[in-house]
Amino acid sequence: IALDKSGNYSDPKVQTITIRKPNINQIQWPKDYTVLNGNALDCADPDTSPDSLGYPLLNGKPLELACKILYTFQDSIVKRCSGSSTILRTWLVIDCCNNTTTNHLQTIEKVDKTPPFVICPADFTINTKQGLCSADVTLPIPVATDNCSDSIKITISGSGFGDLGYGPYLNVPPGFYEIKYLICDDCSNCTFCNLA
């Protein structure tokens, strides 16, 4: 009811205010981070927490603002190789007013797509042993590091080398030898070194 300066009252008007409880079936879940979606995380990304990758929302707002709605999550980590894994994050949302729940699986892939960083050995020459037409050869070791993988495998091939790893190879006759190093991390990302 409104009152004007002359003391006249208006007809009564009714305003209806409806308070609705949020519906947990309308939750917006955090997105997946996968190779298929084109947004998989690099293995070097350290932060996979919900603070970085998202929480469930209701009408675009945090669930903490909703009436008597609680949530939790649990991670299950599936290792694919030393530098790659999949986090299966199961979200559980509870409506405490009517004791109903809903859940959602968020998939987070961390992928190692980068081969090891390698400092290749330089080409080298070895003189034959005194009075002999042969030399003993020990191959130089490449320096290899990887941003994610704990395991680096180096395979040697070419010109009869490789069976003994870095050697020593005894009584190698004079000649020109080409040697290839194949350097791979645990996720099969590889790079090469060639020397002669």
Describe this structure in words.
This protein has about 200 residues and is an all-beta fold. Helix content is about 0%, strand content about 40%. It contains one helix and 14 strands, in the order E-E-H-E-E-E-E-E-E-E-E-E-E-E-E. The strands form five sheets. The chain has a four-stranded mixed sheet, with no helix packed on it. A three-stranded antiparallel sheet has the order 1-3-4, with no helix packed on it. It has a three-stranded antiparallel sheet with strand order 11-13-14, with no helix packed on it. A hairpin with a 4-residue loop joins strand 13 (about 180-185) and strand 14 (about 190-195). It is rod-shaped and about 130 Å long.
Tell me the span between the first and last alpha carbons. Answer: 98 Å
- Residue stretches low in confidence (pLDDT < 50, at least 5 long) are none
The total count of helices amounts to 1
Count of extended strands: 14
Order of helices and strands: EEHEEEEEEEEEEEE
Shape: rod-shaped
Radius of gyration equals: 33 Å
The average pLDDT is: 88
Q: What percentage of amino acids are in beta strands?
A: 35-45%
Largest sheet: 4 strands, mixed
* Widest beta sheet: strand line-up: 2-7-6-5
What class, by secondary structure content? mainly beta
What is the percent of helical residues?
Answer: under 10%
SSE layout and pairing:
Layout: E1 27-28, E2 41-42, H1 50-53, E3 57-58, E4 61-62, E5 69-81, E6 84-95, E7 100-111, E8 117-119, E9 135-137, E10 143-145, E11 152-157, E12 169-172, E13 179-185, E14 190-195
Parallel strand pairs: 2-7
Antiparallel strand pairs: 1-3, 3-4, 5-6, 6-7, 8-10, 9-12, 11-13, 13-14
